[in-house]
């Protein structure tokens, strides 16, 4: 049932709902601050390689200088933990949280479309959005990888730039819940991001609960042009999975033939 009286014209109701969902008109300073938070979240959600690990002190300083907000508090809690860990421990924790757990994967279209043909189309749509805005990714990650989506949001601004984040809000909620349930400090990074988005609706909460219970949709089809691997899993960028060998049409006697595997 609509929260607005039925006497209000449909056009007015639509505009009221749209105004609730999008950020209020921001000053240039506010836009810059919002973009900085998005870039920080993007950086902190990337694999903690040696370059990122060596920048931990600088990142902590930048976070400490942010204006006092709930999002900044969440980021400060994370960077305090981040700065205190050994690099190898950070790498292990990241892999465990984001590479080995489906419910906290950073590939957003998975939560909305699962392993279905619709996911391939969603990836193409994201690429087209980036190109239409004049932004060309380096191709190192899929277009729905959360750090990539965050960088686009920071560059393109609160309107169209943040639209993919709003579209995938339910997936972000699920990632946050999974990280929090696992006791991972990365839950604070997702919490900081969620403070920038409109509050979840009852429909959002119900959809997240369904995702937790049932998982995303699934069908055994390819996701061309991106492809699948294993049991319908979506292949991370750079992953090579050798094809299954075709059965031989003729097997010569062992005494006259020798087969060697790849060296």
From TrEMBL:
Top-level taxon of origin: Bacteria
Keywords assigned: Nitrate assimilation
SUPFAM superfamilies per UniProt: TorD-like
Organism: Streptomyces luteogriseus
GO biological-process terms attached to the record: chaperone-mediated protein complex assembly; nitrate assimilation
Residue numbers spanned by region Disordered: 216-263
Annotated protein name in UniProt: Nitrate reductase delta subunit
PANTHER family: NITRATE REDUCTASE MOLYBDENUM COFACTOR ASSEMBLY CHAPERONE (PTHR43680), NITRATE REDUCTASE MOLYBDENUM COFACTOR ASSEMBLY CHAPERONE NARJ (PTHR43680:SF2)
GO molecular function, one term: unfolded protein binding
Compositionally biased intervals (Pro residues): 239-251
InterPro entries: DMSO/NO3_reduct_chaperone, NO3_reductase_chaperone_NarJ, TorD-like_sf
């Amino acid at each position: 049932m609509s929260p607005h009286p039925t006497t209000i014209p449909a056009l007015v109701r639509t505009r009221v709902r749209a105004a609730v969902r999008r950020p209020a008109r921001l000053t240039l300073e506010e836009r810059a601050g919002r973009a900085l938070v998005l870039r920080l979240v993007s950086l902190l959600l990337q694999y903690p390689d040696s370059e990122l690990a060596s920048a931990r002190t600088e990142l902590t300083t930048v976070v400490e200088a942010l204006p006092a907000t709930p999002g900044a508090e969440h980021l400060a809690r994370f960077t305090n933990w981040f700065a205190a860990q050994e690099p190898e421990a950070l790498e292990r924790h990241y892999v465990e949280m984001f590479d080995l757990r489906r419910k906290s994967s950073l590939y957003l279209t998975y939560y909305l479309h699962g392993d279905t043909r619709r996911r391939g189309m969603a990836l193409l749509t994201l690429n087209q959005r980036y190109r239409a805005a004049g932004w060309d990714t380096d191709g190192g990650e899929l277009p729905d990888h959360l750090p990539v989506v965050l960088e686009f949001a920071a560059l393109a601004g609160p309107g169209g730039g943040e639209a993919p984040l709003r579209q995938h809000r339910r997936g972000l909620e699920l990632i946050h819940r999974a990280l929090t349930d696992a006791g991972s400090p990365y839950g604070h990074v997702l919490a900081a991001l969620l403070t920038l988005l409109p509050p979840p609706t009852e429909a959002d909460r119900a959809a997240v609960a369904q995702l937790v219970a049932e998982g995303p949709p699934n069908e055994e089809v390819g996701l061309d042009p991106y492809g699948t691997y294993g049991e319908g899993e979506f292949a991370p960028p750079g992953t090579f999975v050798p094809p299954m060998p075709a059965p031989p049409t003729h097997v010569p006697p062992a005494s006259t033939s020798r087969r060697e595997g790849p060296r």
